[in-house]
Every structure is written in C-alpha cells, then in structure tokens.
Predict the structure.
Amino acid sequence: MKHDEPPPVISPAEEASPPCQVACPLHTDVRGYVAAIARGDFEEGYAIAREPNPLIYVCSHVCAHPCEEECRRNQVDEPVSIAALKRFVAERHDLSLGHGPSKPAVEPKNQRVAIIGAGPAGLTAAYDLARMGYPVTIFEALPEPGGMLRVGLPKYRLPREIIDIDIKGILEAGVELKTNVRIGQDLTISELKAQGYEAIFIGIGAQQSRTLRIEGMDLDGVLLGVDFLRDVNQGKPVKLGKKVLVIGGGNVAVDVARSAVRVGNLGDEREVHMICLECREEMPAHEWEIIEAQREGIVLHPSLGPNRILGRDGKVVGLETIVCESVFDSEGRFNPSFVCNTESVIEGDTVILAIGQASDLSFIHPEDGIELTPRRTIKVDPDTLATTAPGIFAGGEVISGPGSVVGSMALGRRAAISIDAYLRGENLAKLRFAEPQKLGELPQKTVEKIKPLIREPMPLLPLEERAFNYREVELGYTPAMAMRAAHRCLTCGGGAYVDTGKCAACLTCVRVCPYDVPVIKDGAAFIDPTQCQACGVCASECPAKAITMKLYSEDQLYQEIEALFATAPASNPEPFIVGFCCLYCAYAGDEWAESVRAQLPPNVRTLDVFCTSRIDIQHLLRAFELGADGVFVAGCVGEECRHTDKAVNRIQGKVQFVKEVLNQVGLGGDRLALYNIPSAEWGTVPRIAQEMAERVRTLGTNPL
Amino acid sequence: MIIAEQKPLDEIKSMIADYQKVLILGCGTCVTICFAGGEKEVGALASALRMATRLDGQNKEFIEATVQRQCEYEFNEEVADLIEEADVVLSLACGIGVQTMNEQFPNKLTLPGLNTAFLGQPVEQGVWDERCQACGDCVLYLTGGICPIARCSKSLLNGPCGGSQNGKCEVNPEIDCAWQLIYDRLQALDRLDLMMEVKPAKDWSTSRDGGPRKIVREDLRLTFVEEKQS
C-alpha cells in the first residue's frame, strides 16, 4: 500500500472541500478515488477510499451514502454513483497487497485502552488508537465481532464474509479482541480500570427494540424487530406465521420486512405488510430500500398508527389501526395525531415491532460517574465525546441514537483522537473539531453549460432469482461501467488554481475557458473553484505556467510520460508509438476498456488524459525528446466533447505548433497526428496506431 | 505593450553553437503575454533545442528559468547563481531585457532569442497589431484616437495619400489605411473639422531623430533630497 500516513484528523480544511467529502462523516476523499477509477487506476482508488475507512468493505455494501445526496451533479441530472464505485474498488482490490495503509512509524505507547463493543464505532476507535501505537482491547458481548453489522443487518444486504474481511484488517493493525465478554455481567467498568486500562471507550450501540404500550403486546406472535433480526442473522429458529405485520417505517423496519419474506423460504405462502405512522413520502427508510421492498411483494400501509394487537386463544390474529394525520407537531416534535373513528383491522398472525432502538445502559453503575441524558443515551461533550467520568469516552449510537454505520465510525474516530489527547495529558477543553468548509452550489449559468450524462445503472439480481434467498441483490459494475460512472464526476474543487505571483493577467484563461469561469480580479486571474469544471484548457494554455490543476496536474502527466518510457520495450524493430487518449471519449463505450486497449501491440503505448484539453505543447515535445517515433492524440469529434467545441479546438492549435517545431528541429512534423474519433469507433485505434507506424517507418526511427 | 516573436530555431542554434551550458531565461511580463518568452515558451524552446542539438551530435545542457521583468536588476539578481553557472544566457526577453542582462552581468554574454517587433495591441487571442511608434509627441488628440505615425505606412500627418484603395493601404492589402480609419472615426464623432486643419511638419526631435532618448524625474530619484541640500 502506498499511503503511509496516520488516519486523517478531522480538522479545518484550508479551503472549501467538495460537498461529497464534507457530507461523508469520515470526510473520505470521494473526488480522489472517483478520479482514480475514472483513470482506470482501481488500486489507487481503493487506497484513497480505504485510507480513512477501516470498514471499507462493509461501507461499500451498506453505506447510506450521504455523499450522493450532496453531489453537485444533482443540479444537472443525477448524482455520481459513488456508493457503487466504492464497492467496485473494494471488490477488485487484491487483498494480498494488504487491507489498508501500512502502520505509521509511531512510538509504541504503554497506556492500555479498553473498547466496549465491536460495532462500527468501537472498531474504528480501536483501529485508530492501535495505529497511534496504543495497546487496544475490544470487549464484545457476542461470540463474533461486528455488532449490528453482524446481528442487525440482513445477509442479503451485507454478506457475512464481507464483515470478516474488514475485521481481519482491523485486527491485523494490532487490535486485541475478546468476545463473549459482556461488560456489566462478566466484567464491570471499575474492574476494567483496576485491570490497568487508562482510557475506556463505550460503543455498545442501540440494540434494544423500543416497545409500545398498547393492548396485546403479550400475545404469542408478537416479536421485537432487533431480536428477530438477531435470531435470523445468527441462524436461530424463528417462529414466523404466514401473514406478518411489521410496525415501523424506518430502515430497520424494512430490514425486518425483507428478512421476513425470506425466513423459511415459503414463497407466495407468506404475506408481509408494513404499517407506519408516516405517509408514504415521509417514510424515514431510504427510498431505494422501500422500492426494493415493494418489488419483493411487501405491502405498505402508510399513515396508520397501531391501536391494539388483536388476539384469540393467546395468539395474534390481527392489528387494529387508526389513521394518523400527522406525525410531528408544529414544533417538530414527535407527537402523532390520529383521526377519531377510523379504526380498522389488518389480519395477521405475527406482529414485529420495529419502531426504534435504544441502548441497554444497565451496566452503568452510579459509582462509575457516567451521567445519562433524558433520552437514555450517554451524556458526552459534543466535541470531545468525553463522558462525565474522566478517561471514559463514548461514541456511536449509544450517544447519537440510531444512525448510520459511517456516522458511528466518525464518532469512534473522534473519540480516538480525544483519547489520544487525554492520554498525552492535553487539556481536553481545548480540543475542538471543526468541520471542513463546503464548496458552494453550482451557479445556474454553469449548470446550463454542463452536459447531462446518463447515470450508469447498477446491474441487479433478477427478481425471480432474488426473493426468498439471501443472495445479494446488487451485482456490481464491470470495469467499463465503473469508469463511465466515474467520468460523470464534476471534480468539484479539483480544477484550476492560479498562482497570482506568476500570473501576467494575459487574459488567455478568460478567453479559452469553455465555461466562462476565469475573470481578472485585483490584477490577476481568478478562477472560482465553485464554478470550475476542471477541463484543464486554461492550465495547458497559460503562457506563464501560473495555473495548476489541483487533481491530476500537468506535472503528473509529465511523470506518466517519463514512466511510460521507463517501461518501454528495450529493443523493438517496430516504431514506438505513444498515444494521448481522451479517456472520456475512449471509455464511452465498452470496446476500449474491455478489449481494444489490451490488444495494442507492445510498441504502442497509450496515456489516458481527462480530455485532450489537458495536453500542452511541452507534453507532446517531451514524448519526442524521450524517443517516441510517433505520437498521436486521440480525442472526440466536437459535438461529443464532455466540455465544448472550444476545448476540442484548442488541441488542434497545439498539435499544429508542435508539428512546426518538429520540422524546425529536423525530426519531421509528420511524426505527430491528431485524430478525432467518434466514441463508437474507438475500436479503430489499433489501426490508427498501425497507420502512424507505417508513416513513421518512412521517416526512420527517432534518433534521440 | 512590447510585442516580440521567437527567432527561427536555426538562428538560435548558430548563436549558441560555441557554448555548452545555456541558460534560457524568460521574462514574465510583455513577452509572456505575447507567447514569445514566458515560462511555457522557455520550456518548449529548451525541449526543441535539446532535440535539435542532440540530432546534431552535440551534448549541450539547457537550464530553464523565468524572471518577473528582465529589464530590472533586482529580478535578474534572483537567478544570479544560474547565470553564473551557465556558459551563455539565451534571453527570451525583449531587446531591453537582453541589454539589461548584458549590462548587469558584464562577464556573461546574453544572446537574444527573440526579435522584438513593435509596440502593439493583442487584438484577439494570437493576433497582435502595431499601435505606437513612441514618437515622443502624441498626436492622437487630432486624429480621433488612431495613430497616423504608427499605422500609416508613410506616417503621413495629412492623409490619406493616393495609395489608399477601398480603405486598404497600397503597401499591403492586409493593412487598413490609417487615414481612412481616421476619417471614418472623425465622421462618426462629427469632428471632420479636425481634418480640415493642415498639420505642419512634425518636430521629430522627440523621436529617434534626436538620438537615444532619456527621461529623468528628479523628484523620484533617491538622490533628490541630498542634491537639494547640497
């Protein structure tokens, strides 16, 4: 693994970050890994995505992906399929290269830290602390680590071997794990302290189902959602009837309902219904989960409150409901109001409650000094996550209430930073965490200039192969699909930056930008990062070299040109041809990614660039200087350009200039050619390379 | 601003023929803006010269640098060590920069990589037109803001001449007749009366005809106070 830095500290960014990165509780460099995928560098993509995230495999399957909600492509068409791309790099990653970044060279510390609970928060805190050099022990009540990932999430959403991959990586980072140890039962907090743990992190999650105070709760056939999921997930026998009524409209309720469909493999013999207070539009579950539930035949009954559970002979026979007209009062508090005389009955033999979860805090004793909140969560300093007891910290759902995996992880990370500060004797009151600043929305004038691109659809398991089993529904992208999906990224904030000290205010950038972004401000060019679309045309044209692309800079392309020659075949009778290919065009179809590129002969090497507008005259000259016999630039036909004709046209001028220089140098301008290839015809590139080779043969090899 | 263009590669090659280690020194002002001698051009020329000289069987070394304004000692001083290191300097500044370098570094020869062309205006990306001849006695107030000295092929003060054809100059049909432009402009401004006045012969002593020119502003000189006191 290349990345050797310790986990990033959540600290103020020097400048505005892309909205996806800000939305991610772990502040994952989404733009960075999507760009790596866009270039076909899938391992680099994995390394970037893994860096802040020790549960990358888990997240790649079940992350709620708030990044996509914030994606600025929403303003143009649909968000970049970030979640699917993360899964793509995780699935392709070669684990023999290691799970994540190698351990930073830190001095081992001797202060031991105990982590209570091996869920997302605890695992993250443990991983981070271990990488900081602390001896860390996780105490887990269940036989296996993972917390709700293992006993809460259904297998069809998260195959168990996926959890095991991440846990293995975390344990390899030097974390000790003790399972089947329930704090409060097998060990108390004071005993942990007595054993020499100088800091304790509580990350026990919210593993108790909330119940209802309605008639019929004691009937046979009434189950609690969390218990039901735990039993199903642990392979324990579950008694489920043929008509199951799930109460709740959140994500856990959907998990319960979709699991109920699958239990016992009864097929059409079992009906599953969901009853919730919220109207359909306001159901708190993720929309995509609800849609999949409906596709699996689950019947929704929104805007209904449970009035009582009906029974006969001690067994459930149905649920009496009442119409709910609003869930929250005018002040936004949960305070459902019902419509009188709207009682009706839904028949059923099983009722499962999935109306929320809480933490079991019975292990906390008064002498521990850990105060609780009225909401039955642990009271913490919102910045440092320190509890009211010195040296004891808490994070995850035990402080936040039910939330997301990645949200709990971020709290685990924050606690790890605080614990480190605490153990180093720093004043915790001074430890403050600032959120990065978010890049603003795209201005409407920019939105209008951005071309819409179809969101690459995720291949799904066909419905007929899906219901009543635990196979994962989403099948994942192929490399060509992933690259196309990544090419939709607007590279927010990764575009052009001006060194005002070098800028000669020549106005070239102002004139060449296809999006009319640069302006002259205070005597120098100013390129608003909120608007820049990272086409790179300004940087490649700037005569003062005052503009640099933040992501995939001009220098990086130089390095790639050098690297390409470093691995060139030593002696080859065939002319050595270098092709600069616009990756947006090349990968628009499947042909290039899946077959053509790999079939190029060894004397033809290609470099993928984000649009030919990124290429400058020095790049082309450098290729000849290093000994290329011929160079071709392959870009799109104007109307297909991701940017505009304005970007396409610029490469023509540069090629013409370099041809003239080659003539003057004595190499011959005919060694360089520009091809405008429609996206459907990238299969012709080998022929183009062949043509180049023939032409070059008549000019002789490059004597350099 | 000053407009320049690069000399042909062959000419540059022959200029540097006797030197092994060449510093190519760009300038960050006018010649950057006119794509003749900025950092990008320095890099491209270095690349071209490396290739060209290697093809000639030579093994020259090229160092690249660009200063903010080569016509000022202070900026050049920043690269004094590179200048010291090089056998010769190939300047991509205008003629002023080349001379400043030669004056400032008397032990090192600085060669001109550009032909300094004229004082002009970038009229569109990639196109520059001559606009001023620095005659030292501006007449633009008489001619609707269009310079007859720089833009009339004959620098006539009372044009147009008989060579004006359909608004173009007889010297080259690509050249607009300056006096046609002046006439059109004055007509639009309703100031054709200005054309009725015959302009007397111009005193060219403020131009090149008076020899090399110099402007001194005593008030700005740092020795100003001392001199007054003495």
In short: Chain A touches chain B through 26 residues (CB under 8 Å). The mean pLDDT of chain A is 91. The radius of gyration of chain A is 29 Å. The first strand of chain A starts at residue 112 and ends at 116.
